[in-house]
Design brief:
The chain contains 4 helices and 15 strands. With 231 residues, the chain is an alpha+beta fold. It has a single domain, classed as Protein Transport Mog1p, Chain A (3-Layer(aba) Sandwich), CATH 3.40.1000.
C-alpha cells in the first residue's frame, strides 16, 4: 500500500519491512525489529509455511535464496523476494502483498473508499478497466488457492497522476480495514492484481515486481500459484 507509494497505516504491522543480504546475526536483529509483534517469520528457508495472523489463513511455498515474510497481521501479508533492498521493501516495491477486504479508492488526495463502486470483485474490476487514470490488460478469470476471481496488470496512465505530493501517483486499491494505507502507482510503475472473492468480499493479491530491475512477475506468479487459502 503506497499512500501514495509506501506509507502504511499506523495500526498495521507492515511499517517495518526488510530484505537485506546480511550475516545471520544481522538478519536476526532485523527480524526482531521487523517482527516486533512476533507474528511474521522474517527470512525463510525453502519450504511451505502458514500465515499466523492473516485472515483467511494462507499456506504458501517459497523457493530458497532469501525470500522473507515481513508482514503478517489480520489484514496484511507480504512476501519479499531475494535481493529486495530495505528501502524498496519499506516502500512496498517488489513485494507480493495480500490485503483482505478491499475497495475501489475515491481518487482523491485523502485516502478513502469510493462508495459508488460495488464492493465486489466484478464491481472493482469493472471500475479499474474504465478508469482514465489507469491502463489495464484484459481481466482474466483465475482461481488462486481455492478462491475465484480475476487477474489483470495495471499501470498509471501517462500524465494522469494525482499531484498530492512529489511524485504524482494514482490510487489503485483501498484497504477497508487499513484506511490510511492506499496502494498507489507512480508513472511507469505497474502491478499485477489478483482480485478474489473471500466469503462475499474482495481480497487482493498484488504482485509489485514489474520494474526494470528486481524480481520478475514470472517468479512472483509461481509463488502465488502455490497459495492456498483456508475457508
Amino acid at each position: 500500500m503506497k499512500p501514495i507509494r509506501g506509507n502504511v497505516a499506523a495500526g498495521a504491522t507492515l511499517l517495518v519491512l526488510a530484505v537485506l543480504v546480511l550475516s545471520a546475526s544481522a538478519w536476526s536483529s532485523w527480524s526482531r525489529a521487523a517482527c516486533a509483534d512476533g507474528s511474521c517469520r522474517g527470512v525463510l528457508k525453502a519450504g511451505t509455511y502458514t500465515s499466523r495472523m492473516f485472515t483467511p489463513k494462507l499456506t504458501y511455498t517459497v523457493p530458497g535464496g532469501g525470500w522473507a515474510n515481513y508482514a503478517d497481521d489480520s489484514v496484511i501479508f507480504s512476501l519479499a523476494p531475494p535481493g529486495v533492498s530495505l528501502a524498496r521493501a519499506k516502500s512496498l516495491t517488489d513485494v507480493i502483498l495480500g490485503l483482505t477486504t478491499v475497495q475501489a479508492p475515491a481518487m482523491t488526495c485523502s485516502p478513502a473508499a469510493n462508495a459508488k463502486v460495488p464492493q465486489t470483485v466484478r464491481g472493482m474490476v469493472r471500475w479499474l478497466v474504465h478508469q482514465k487514470r489507469l491502463k489495464t490488460t484484459t481481466p482474466q478469470r483465475v482461481k488462486i488457492g481455492g478462491l475465484k476471481g480475476y487477474s489483470l496488470t495495471v499501470r498509471a496512465a501517462h500524465g494522469r497522476g494525482l499531484h498530492c505530493g512529489v511524485p504524482a501517483s494514482v490510487p489503485v486499491i483501498f484497504p477497508t480495514n487499513d484506511p490510511n494505507g492506499e496502494f498507489s502507482l507512480r508513472a511507469n510503475e505497474r502491478a499485477k492484481l489478483y482480485l478474489l472473492t473471500f466469503e462475499t468480499l474482495p481480497l487482493a493479491i498484488i504482485a509489485d515486481s514489474l520494474g526494470q530491475r528486481g524480481p520478475s512477475v514470472a517468479v512472483d506468479s509461481r509463488v502465488i500459484s502455490h497459495f492456498h487459502f483456508a475457508k
